[in-house]
Design a protein that fits this description.
alpha+beta; CRO Repressor; four-stranded antiparallel β-sheet; 7 helices; 4 strands; 59% helix
């Protein structure tokens, strides 16, 4: 069907405008975490926000007030989880992935590459993107919690203070 009636189209336009504005306000209230690189929890929340907005816009049995309440509740849940993960290590451990060393002092960690489903050529590409040509000169490549690859090229990995927490976690895993 190509066209139902003008009142339905007007309803959709009003809900789109209202939902759009409400989503912007809630995303701003939710803070930078909702707009930054995602961890798994942030990604799920963002997808859910889009789904709620789409359902509110397109389904006549979902009112604007119900959709806005769902958006607000999900944003509040996101803020609550962020607060809990910053205060209690149990929540941080349960909701966030840990960074993992994939290469240390020029040597690939094959088990870590397999576990994280990362190929050597992806690590090499990250090294090149950071302007380095020799794997042997790289102190560490870390797969961060958000999925990005960090390349450290200053001295030995054990001497890099920015790697302390990752190295501690790495030592526990061995």
């Amino acid at each position: 069907m190509f066209f139902d009636n003008w009142p339905d189209i007007a309803r959709v336009c009003i809900i789109v405008a209202s939902g759009y504005l409400a989503t912007i306000v809630l995303m701003r209230l939710g803070g930078k975490r909702l707009l930054s690189k995602f961890n798994a929890f942030d990604f799920i929340v963002t997808i859910a926000l889009g789904s709620i907005l789409a359902s509110t816009i397109l389904l006549e049995d979902v009112s604007l007030s119900e959709g806005l309440a769902a958006l607000a509740a999900l944003t509040l849940l996101q803020l609550s989880m962020s607060w809990l993960t910053n205060r209690f290590s149990f929540f941080a451990y349960a909701l966030r992935s840990e960074p993992r060393i994939l290469l240390r002092d020029g040597r690939f960690y094959e088990d870590a590459l397999r576990y994280e489903h990362i190929r050597r050529d992806e690590v090499e590409a990250a090294i090149r993107r950071h302007g380095h040509g020799k794997i042997e000169d790289v102190s560490a490549v870390v797969l961060e919690a958000d999925g990005s690859l960090s390349v450290i090229c200053e001295g030995k990995a054990a001497d890099c203070t920015a790697l302390r927490s990752v190295l501690e976690h790495d030592e526990k895993a061995l």
